[in-house]
Fold these 2 entries.
Entry 1:
Amino acid sequence: MFNPIVILQSIVSGILMGGIFALLGVGFSLSWGVMKVINIAHAAFGILAAYIAYWGLTLYGIDPILSLGLSLPLLFLTGLMIHRFLIQPITRAREIVVASMILTFGLAVVLENIMLFAWSADERLITTPYSSQSIFLGEIIVKISSLLGFVLSIFGIGAIYLFLYHTHTGKAVRATWQEPEGAALQGIDLERVSMIAFGLAIASAGAGGVAMAYMYSFNPPAHNFWLIFLFLVVIVGGVGSIFGSAIAGLLIGLITGVSGAFFPFQWINVLLFGLLMGILLVKPEGLFKR
Amino acid sequence: MLQGIKITKRFGGLIALSNIDFEVEKGSIVGLIGPNGSGKTTLFNVISGFLRPEEGHVFFNGREITALKPYQIARLGIARTFQIVRPLREMTVLDNVATGILYGEGKDHLEEARREALELLRFTSLDLQKNIHAGHLRLADRKRLEMTRALGIRPQVLLLDEVFAGLNQREIGDAIGLIFRIRKEMGITIFMVEHVMKAIMKACDRIIAIHFGIKVADDIPSHVANDPKVIEAYLGTEYAENGVAERFL
Amino acid sequence: MMSARVQRISTLFLLCFLALLPLVKPPVYFISFLFMIFLYIILAESWNLIGGFTGYLSFGHVAFFGIGTYTSAMLFQKLGLSPFIGAVPAGMVSAVVAGVIGYPCLRLRGPYFAVVTLCFAFIMDLIVKNWSFLGGSEGVHLKLVRMEIQSSRSIFYEVFLGLAVMAVLLVRWVQRSKFGAGLAAIHEDEDVAQTLCIHTAGLKLKAFVLSAFFPGVAGGIYAYYISYIHPDVVFDFNISILIVLMALFGGGSSWTGPLIGASLLSIVNELLSTFIKPEIARIIYGAMFIGVILFVPNGIVAFIRKRERVSS
């Protein structure tokens, strides 16, 4: 049980899982922090992209990474539309953050059931030609597909970082978030910037979904499972903090992976919820102050 | 009546208030002036319990109130308004005031509280708008409501935070008149933060000036107006020597 | 709108009609359906005390219902206490739990409060599932009532009708009381409420505790009604979010809101599941959430009132 190899293996698989948490968490955090939208449907869009990858592979033999060529733009546009038609009308609500929670909950239910209706609740697994291959780090086994998923996650986070810090629009997004009135005075079109940021967040959810598909089986209700982790990641990492969410994602993946080696599965959920609750009660701003 | 001793408030590395001493005597109207960011509202937040000072004490009628929560301080008899008015928007003007009377005076019945609220609204000339939702009032009336609501808890001291900001000449005149009536007819002591110099010169018995969290003057209005340190704080050093303040104040 | 006198008479008439309904032996399905509406009225109205009135939207309120079912079930199973009596301690246990977790949780604002209450409900669900003393994931079987189903259903029906009336009266009373005025002030602006001498922390806690009582009592009786309880059923997150929707749809700032919301949405749900395929029904169910937030965010009562004001 306390075999060092087992521990190391669980650390490695935890970090690989953490990559997914990090990417999904960053997008979720972006949405919450910048657009003040708690997107309950975030992970559901990831599952959608996973399905697109699955069908691309199963029907046309296209590698999941390539399927992103379709799903990323598709999800980006979907994000734009959702923000324009569902989010913007409610920005003047009394409690916009909670209102967005309820609205996106409805969206998640709709999305989940459309997928259920179209593709049933059967568990899907992505099996590429290299799926069964692994590399060996000493006695630690790392599946090629898991590694790919992790690399994809890192690239995704990197892309978001580049966008936010090295493009004109990205800087506008950051400005809007830190100081909306000042940004507006500078001539930044708040609505357009928010739309783009939201589109980016949804697209990143898609990338996260494909990364997830490389490592795990999935079906439409699976997004609920990932959602809990997203809340944990964002609250630990600090709402809106890209860096914080990324680190928190990896950390939580690590903790989950290692706990899996020691505790029975059911208690892990209790641990996670308890952790989330505990952090909220003690330090809701997260471990990484903005 | 209201006293502060060596109040120091820090926000991380920023020192907002440094060793502030002040005293507000019963029945007086004391003004608090200073350039933007000098710490005036911070001091009010400390007095009313929204902030805890790192050092120093606040006393009210001899009793220490430094560590008390805002509602406890309100119950002891210190009322306040906010710099950016915060009306209870979905409630009517009448209910805004009635809520204060319910909890401030310890009344139990809504109708009774509403009757008293109406009387208070007559005193501040807002009675005609009693059934309008507070969110629909124009600025001058919202400020008036803010004051009326504070009066509803029957305080001994009223902290007014920039009640004249955004008002025109005539509205300022009305507001000053109201403040005098509050003192005269209700016996309430007033401590007011203000930026509009002409108004504060007219209204106050004494003025305290702070700059970068440090008290630079504490005297009758005419002395403060000519105090070089005050002039320097507002206009810069060059003007201090020449005493040009009066033209600007 | 109708005059007060007409309203009072028609309400009394409606209540009498509902109370006497079982005597004409309508189909059991119909009684059961109304029973569920009463349940949601109890849940949504109670929720509204902390949600619509105070502005602290609890997303885990089903937990108090679930705690009630398990308390009453345990009292019955281990001590033989009849659930009709055991329901009251069940309600009290829920209230006490609300007091304990409310104390730290109510310090959080908006979405954080929502998430923490959500966590709490999930933790309760997981704890019960993993605790064999409470039956674990096997659930708890309660001895069936030795009575033919028509009469037993009718008894539960009347009890729930009574509870629903009590819950509505409680919320109505709160709305018109000093307590309600304080909650409204807290909802609007908590800092201002403090400057008006309102002990905000205390009032919030009181509202939260009160909001847990009737759901607990209802849970206590419900355990016996369905005679087999399982965590997935009585701690179902869908119930939590459905009562949020019902209260907000009807209108969170008044006692009438949750009543209307619970009634209307229960009927809609029932129609959906009867006439439409499950997945499509779920899609429409999800769309309802989107629709309510987009089109009637302040509730349907406010929406209708605004229409009246505009047209007059």
Entry 2:
Amino acid sequence: MTTRSDAEAVVPTATGAPGGPGAVRVRAASFAHRPRRGAPVPAVDGLSFEVDAGEVVALVGPSGCGKTTLLELICGLTAPDAGTVAADPAVLMPQRDQLLPWLTALDNAALAPRLAGASRHAARAVAAPLFERFGLRGFEGARPDELSGGMRQRVAFLRTLLAGKPVLCLDEPFAALDALTREELRTWLAGALAQEPRTVLLVTHDVEEAAVLADRILVLSARPARVVAEVAVTTPRPRGVTDPDVIAARAAVLEALR
Amino acid sequence: MLAALLVLAFLGAWQLYTEVGGPGELILPSPLQIADSLVEDRGLLWDDFLVTGTEVGLGVLCALVVGFGAAVALHRNALLRRATYPLLVGSQAVPIVVLAPLLVFWLGFGLGPKLAIITVICFFPVAVTTLDALDRTDPEQRKLLRTLGASPRQVFWWGEAPAALPAALSGARIAVAIAVIGAVLAEDSGSNAGLGHLLKQSNGQLETARAWAAVVVLAAFAVTLFYALVRAERRLLPWAARPGGSPR
């Protein structure tokens, strides 16, 4: 079986970064999309920032500013045109949940261990306790189309977690949900991260979400993306939307976006 | 239910037509005469059905495998696709009557040439529907599998192949009807058994009612096979079952 070696072979630039497992260092990274016709569209241009191991960093910016591209660079799905992206092994949770409709919820969550060569039984045994702990008990055998949007998102997050990588890149994980479910999942995610600490890069256009979840918020400019402001939130999680620190962070980010 | 009523009305009109005039029983026997033949010649029909049924069943299976394989090969290799896709389309324009004697010459009078003919005409709908489905697989899904550590081979087996399977089965459903015609034509050009052979023989002996009885058996078989595939799809690929989408 050639599973991991193949995947890493296409990721020449994503090498281990200094500072313990889970660090990410982006240095003057540039990337342009090259459509079949027309000029290249720069998505990221000379972008630099660092994320320490265990930090939760939110990336906020106008839509279409290259945030998704940035996550793909960090996960090694694309290589930068220039500059370096040095990240410890990172896994992407794509914008839409992308649960495979032909697998049950449990098998979807257990996908990464299966791909790494674990037997179906062993992979399920790894995923099942997480279903218990994170409020999905009883939904193990459900097909994705039988799950609500919030449930699907939870399964997708567990799948990301079970990839066993120190860095999680979450691309607008709650964008498709209604406000109430989003609020609920925010709390759920904060709880899950408290139990399973990882380095998290959270792309979102929801400033409140960023302020509630992140240790640090990077505000990006319109395409091509540059960091225009950095806002730290020091109150420990879980935070409420009315915590003074959260309100202050929100205001600062909105100001920077203007 | 509605289909049964429709068939009944059709048979009634047919019966009436043959009784008040019509072209005569040598050209168009009445439904009752055909029914008589179905009962009387049931032994003969059954034996020949077993031959043709085997040909069609195995032929559709071959077409499914070959069609899926061809679609995967064309999907993976753009050069191969540009080189051979027009040829594949062209192959569908070659009338079987031309091809059949050649295949009989190569493969003899047995099952071989029949399977070859059915596969040649039936793999095409399977290949086209499967290729379309493969082309339409979500690039985001590929990204997801890759970020979870899938090798290119695993991206295919875990993502693309299951996504294309419902389309391949739709193609097979289209193929079933033409497979029956293919079997008849194949038997026509060189065979000593099967419903196609019986059809030819009965026409020669002016046993028109028996020929029509063979046609009834063929049609019934095609319908059965079609719905068997619908059942199989629902059973094997429950995620692909669109509510109210596929025929019951």
